[in-house]
Structure formats: structure tokens, C-alpha cells
Amino acid sequence: MSSTIGNRIILTLSGESHGLYMTATLDGLASGIEVDRDYIDKILAERRPNTIGSSARREKDDYEIISGVFNGFTTGAALTILMKNADVDSSSYEATKDLARPSQADYPAFIKYKGFNDYSGSGIFSARLTAPVCAAAAIILKELEKEGITFETHLKRLGAMLDEEGGEEFLSKKYHMYKYSDDEIEKYLDEIKNENDSLGAEVELIIKGVKAGLGEPPFAPLDGELARYMYLIPSVKSVSFGHGFDFAQSLGSEVADELRAIDGKVKFLENNNGGIIGGISNGADIVLSCVFKPIASIAREFKTINMKTMENAEIMINGRHDASVVPRVYTIMKCYAALAIYDMLVSA
After folding, report:
1. What's the CA gap between 248 and 10, in Å, rounded?
2. Which domain holds residue 248?
């Protein structure tokens, strides 16, 4: 297994979805960085499922910072956050432990780990493991905010709901979906959950305040590093920047990011490249989108196999699951992007 990522700011993650504890360790932090427990609690509260369509699993995300902090500031030593799993129910996983759940990691994990992996709550593949990462990343997120680098999210697509307009007005709304109220979105999620189904989504992340020049091409481009961290988030199936997949049907004359010098500063008339060109930030807002597949655990019968006997079987998936990754992924995307940006900043 690979449980470590980063160049100068190294994140190490341990634990499983239904294990007793999980840990997130940040190594490489300078001394003197403020560790604001109230801010960490705020970020964890934003990540926690608390809306219609969310999982019935309710974790308090109780945690301790067991190293690397003294009197509210980092010491320069490795900072480790220990987080407890309390609301654990593995009974539904025991009943189907030999059956491969469709569109989940059960079968490839069974092959790779020869059946020794912890399958309860999806083990290391569960979104539960984003909680300690977000707790650790909250320290970096606040530090970046002090430097004028901010992170905003925007829901672009949720099943049949589509944002066709875009614009700053989204950023003031709870879910940031143009044309649809919060109540309409929650009603939609509730309807899908009651039908024992789930929804895919596309979420846009806007990073503001990153100066031109960040990125280390050819092998550590900024967009490549951001995409790498986005793919750490469970259910992400594609990552794009700026105009993204629409480039495939565009003319070069339509998507040129023309420039002007205004009062001694560079102004881009368009931002089709999402603030990154040639793997380097150009000073415009960094705009990236993640497409999330629908939650695979839904209470319907599916065809599958028994991984031990290699016989065909059917499976009815039970347990406590979300109807969609939103709105939880908003905070998760911010935190994982903050880790990538900060690591590149201190490595430059």
C-alpha cells in the first residue's frame, strides 16, 4: 500500500473505515504555524454528513493532536492527528464479505491483498478516511488564507440538474447551484435516496490568489499535482481544468486567453485554461472540475460473483450510504487542493 504523498509537506494516512482509530501525519511543516482548533472543528463540521440524502452514519470526528504542536503552534516536528471511529456497524458487511459489490474495489482488492484486507465499511477505500486528512489540511488551509489564497466551490451538475450559466453569484449560495434552491436540491436527493438510487455530480473548485509562476514542469506541473491530489478523493473519475473537456469541440480562435497590460498588471480577457498554462500558474484564478461517479452502494439487487468460490451470485447491498457525494465533497476538495498548493509553494 502507498499511504504517503508530498514532496516537502509529506502527508501520511493510516487506519480503516471501521478501525478503532485513523491518523493523519504532516511532516515538513515549519515551526510557528498557528493551529486553530476552532477552525479545524469548523472544517470537520462542513465535511460531516448532515443533510437529506446523506449517510446515516454519524461520527463526531473526535480527535487529538498527539505531536508537533505546543501552545497552539507547530513545533517543526511531525504533526499527528489521531481520530476515533465511534459509530461503527460492520454487520451488513459480514453478511456479504465474499461477494464483490459492483463498481467497488472489493474484487481488485481481494486479488491484490489476497483476501487479507479489511473489508468492513470498505476499509481503506472509504470516504471516511478523508476526515483525518481534512483535519490536518485545515491547518494549511487557514495558513494559505492568511497569504490571500482562497478556495471556493461551485456545483455544476447533479444528476439531471445542470448549471448552464456560471458566475460569481453561485458562491454566495449554500450549494452554489444556479436556478435551483437549496430546498429543491435536497428534495431531489431525498427522492433519489427513496428510490434506492444515487447520483453522480460535477463540482468546480476555484482557487484565488495564486501568483504566476507556481509549478515545476515537465514532471511536476501544477495541474498534474492538483489532479493527483483530487484523485485521492473516493469516487473521482475525471479531473479537468478551465474549459476542460469542451476544448475537444472548440476552435482555437474561440478559446484563446488574450492578455492586456492594465496599470502595470497583466489582465487575461478570458480564462479558458483555468489559470494554468504549460503546467505553471499564470496568475488568473485556478479553475478545476471533478466528476464524481454515483455512490455505488445502493439497496438494489445486482449480479456479482463469490470471490472465494468463483460462482455467480446476486447481492443486495445494505448499510448506511449517501445518495450523492455532495455537499460533503466541497470541503474535501478544498482541503486536498490546499495540500497540493502548499506543498508546491514550500518546494519552490
Report:
1. 36
2. 4-347
